[in-house]
Amino acid sequence: MSHAVQDRPVAATPRSSLSHARLPRWTPAAVAVGSIAAGCGIGLAAGWHSKVQWGLVSALVFVIATYAITTKVEGSRQAKDRVATSLIWVSFVLAVVPLLSLAWVTISKGLEVLDPYFLSHSMNGVLDAEAGGGVYHALLGTIEQVGIATLIAAPIGLLTAVYLVEYGNGKLAKAVTFFVDVMTGIPSIVAGLFILATWNLMLGFGPSGFAGAMALAILMMPVVVRSTEEMLKLVPNELREASLALGVPKWRTILKVVLPTAIGGITTGVMLAVARITGETAPVLLLVFGTKLINPNPFEGAQSSLPLYVYEQYAVGTDAAVARAWAAALVLIAFVMILNLVARGIARWKAPKTGR
Questions:
Q1: DSSP state, 15?
Q2: C-alpha distances in Å from residue 3, one per residue of 7, 8, 9, 10, 12
Q3: Is 95 helix (H, G, I), strand (E, B) or coil?
Q4: What is the CA radius of gyration of the chain?
Q5: CB–CB of 112/262 below 8 Å?
Q6: Prediction pTM value
Q7: In the chain, what is the greatest distance between 2 CA atoms, to the nearest angstrom?
Q8: How far is residue 143's CA from residue 20's CA, in Å, rounded to a whole number?
Q9: For 95-123, how does the pLDDT look when each residue is reduced to its tens digit (9 = 90+)?
Q10: 22, 23, 43, 277: which sits with the fewest CB atoms below 10 Å from its CB?
């Protein structure tokens, strides 16, 4: 009897109850190609001249087609997952396309006059409507003004963030957090007017790169504080507790454990703040005035800067001036990119080693 029970065949579970039909891996690509074709067809039929409209229609068709096809084959649950993935890809493309378009236009137009002569000469003796001249005086002013602003804002912002995360628990910390939030939304022209009213009008100092750097530092500080604060909060408390358990003072724990652990994120935040102030024109226009001459002294006399140079040249309107404006814009983008690469290299060099 027992042998009969053992030899009895077990009924196999239907395969359909354990698995469902799946779309091929090439389906999203095929749907994307079909959606682009449909979007272009709709745009042509409707007489739309803007390629942006074609792209938005193609994105909408892609999401709808993905949901419909996936629901038909794999079910509604999997369709929702694929729609979420499709929305992420569409958002990524919508963000990248303007960036690539901006980079392409700037590079293509800026390379027309960008050469060693343009980088090593100023506009001294050159009329704005004429061809020639360079950007050296503006590049030098930008380097000095941004450098001084970073030297002012980065240490203050870093120490403020350390206080808020490691020490601040009372009313003072709440007040500091409130004012940091308020400073985040201050327009650049207001920061420039504040320095103009105090440094120039009340104290009697004239236009200088240092005055512009102070206004830029005001704009930079809240970005540094906020980004550094969030990076310090990501450091595990276990690292702090382990260091304190060994008898290490708190200040040394912050200096040797917390800051090195978060150095990558802190550096990224500082670079975001630098990129935020590098393109500012209003404070420079109020406090630095601009000049065609090379002024290497940021503490006395008018200076120029790359954003102000771009504004002045584009306002002239001639072909030569507009070409110089595009070239200066390309130099400005390259300047920020180089700063980011250098900062990433320093952060990787100073970051704690995780390997054995």
A1: G
A2: 6, 9, 12, 14, 20
A3: helix
A4: 29
A5: no
A6: 0.79
A7: 112
A8: 61
A9: 888 888 888 999 999 898 888 999 998 88
A10: 22
